């Protein structure tokens, strides 16, 4: 992992004091760039597009009518140890401020100096609390999540922890349809942080995070930041605005990209007196400290300029245009009877046997309790399978329903399920009645098994991919392989989210007739960081064996960092292996497969280092000595000249110990069952013992077995 450097963050914390406004947007973005340097090019390209776009927007505004009024649905996630600290009234007060500030309708706009009154801009953007959820159910647009007492969230990298249920926060609603605002307790005295679209943040992290004491105009707001301007400021970042001083620490070298905002050296605090001059603008009227994108107190923030509006409208109409057409502000019509199928949760992807039993999520979207409904499903164009569900399902609650079993031949399938006649009446909304899934049942593979990824299809026939985040995953490289023209790889260099797991799974393999199974494969890998770094989180390649269609797995191989790589030096460009930068690895699968059908999963765990390749996969079987199969235990070689192996066909569950005695009954050595290795074998050494007769005694719980052994030179 290219570790995020927090030196800049630490310095900023030390140089400012609690009473001053602190926005974490620029700090978080710099941390993202330091952790993922390739983002610099993406961000520069986005900035270039915004500059050109706002210029076109200005020309358009001069010849066309005013841009149309739009209303953007907002969902407010209150993530606090005491969620009642942010009331509904406080949230409404913040929405009122946004609607005033973004429409130049705030009463204090008259305080903008006369010299800049002509520059005041009106975005014609309105905000509403969402009236429907992403699943089209009624809502008030507020989600409340209780945290541990005193819990606060860091602004680092855009404060991702507050944005996921799994890390104690609240999952974003569809960012194509809603502007997500997280209201929480931020650490480090920060008032807010934005994750703007187009800057490399994962889509589900886009939105703004606001300190709860600086949100709205009533309730828990503090004394200085009590007019809602923190949220106005952070949403300005969301729509592409920079700080008015461009975060160049007084250097007068960078600009915020807006022509009608004066060049400014550094941020303003408190309520400066007009005119305020600085090292970048040393003549009246000075700097525009009353701009929403400065750091002045709430009561001294009054305007966006027309140039800033041009940029925000460009971002709205081009980067997040789907917010303009979202139906999130439209109330839901709820019917008395409305049985919805939210999803078919099984089967999906690859199934490993001919019997399938669909599982669906049934939700009552009606206003009355649901007590029964008919559920049907069909495989491809086959006959309908019917099921009558009965129960007690309250409005806007869900239950899992298991449907009747079907047996299928090998093939690919589309399963569609739907409901009918909820409570014995007509369904009020048939649009949500159905759900579907696709899955496949493949022929089993036999040993020996080989795959070199030479065919165009990927994953190869019978293989499967597990890609839970639907981002970077295993893919076929058509240009490089080991002694071939293709391989499989994961492009970890471009994978910006850490600790994501992606599996490439073989077909189900039947090892019938073989007693031992071995995997051989070629691997090539490199890292971005210095391989000598201590404590770094590296990309990891794991190999797991599953005997239950990926429900569980046994790890048989795990390598990362310096133990995995085949290119010895750190590489900041995409790794493409030469013919000499491959290694042949092998794994004994025998103990993991339990002599039954199995799959092998090649698992990549990304930590943003560099690419990992695999090629020339071979899984082979080996027959055990037929005498061992018959006798269940052999002592070999016999006679021996030194080393002796005691080999089991299967390790007996009741075995207590194995002992070696000489002809006089003297104990030479004894070993417990734990000494048996993965080849079902334990070793004794008679090199230093005299020639003669010896006895191997196997002691079981309720029996014993003695095998005679000769030593000769």
UniProtKB/TrEMBL annotation:
Domain Secretion system C-terminal sorting stretches: 637-708
Metal-binding as UniProt keyword: yes
InterPro entries: Ig-like_fold, MetalloPept_cat_dom_sf, Peptidase_M43, Secre_tail
Keyword annotations from UniProtKB, A to Z: Disulfide bond, Hydrolase, Metal-binding, Metalloprotease, Protease, Signal, Zinc
Coiled coil: none
Record's signal peptide: 1-19
This protein's record includes keyword rRNA processing: no
Residue ranges crossing the lipid bilayer per the database entry: none
Domain of life: Bacteria
Gene Ontology molecular function terms on file: metallopeptidase activity
NCBIfam families for this protein: choice_anch_J, Por_Secre_tail
Recorded family membership: Belongs to the peptidase M43B family.
Protein name: Zinc-dependent metalloprotease
Organism ancestry: Bacteria, Pseudomonadati, Bacteroidota, Chitinophagia, Chitinophagales
